[in-house]
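REQUEST FORM: STRUCTURE PREDICTION
Request ID: SP-0412
Submitted by: Lab K.M.
Chain count: 1
Length (residues): 227
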Amino acid sequence: MENKKEYTTAKDKDYLRKSIEAYTKSIAFAPVESKELSLAYANRSAVLFRARLYEDCLLDIERSLKRGYPDKLKTKLFLRQSLCFKALKPSSELETGISKANAIQWLSYLKKYNRTYDITDKYSKMMNELNEPREIIKFIPEIKNDNAIIVGASDAIELKKTNENHQHIVATRDIKSGEFIYISEPFATTPGDKIRFTNCWHCCRQTWAAVPCDNCPNVIYCSDRCH
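STATUS: Completed
RESULT:
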């Protein structure tokens, strides 16, 4: 895999998307319930934190902890968790305080191999980097006025018969630019190769915190619900 530093310091405007996708690949190919899987989830959580995707970051932190994340690194992970709660619930100190207490609890394990680590200084620097959560606008096509005859269509169209055996669709009114007049759910969908590690294989929605299929490393899901 490419150098981890590239994904945490790169200036390319597209580096966050690329790095999240790269870590998703490492998650997909890691052995099930392995230490490598816990490390991959933690690494992706760091990028999600920088991307201000705090809810997704929390999901990856929890997944990492459940899979045996190394004790000597837990302090850093709990600090990140604490700041995610701080960004999402600025007026609440409960979750933030619990996560910070957990970070302090595991500090002695970190100090065994990094004696110069200053948790107060690190927390302060991370606080200065904290911003409001990134707003993700999900585009969902919508039919504003349902058609009484054609399922999935708007009232802007209707069926017109030309004879007993032929019919075609005609407009019933002026149709605005960009207006949806018909939406049909597909019988089956499969993400293309270019979005294999960015879109759910069940619902096809884009995901930043995907979970892998236990049986195939080429398949990811947006959540445990779609898994």
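NOTES: Residues 87 and 132 are 6 Å apart (CA to CA).
Reviewed by: T.R.
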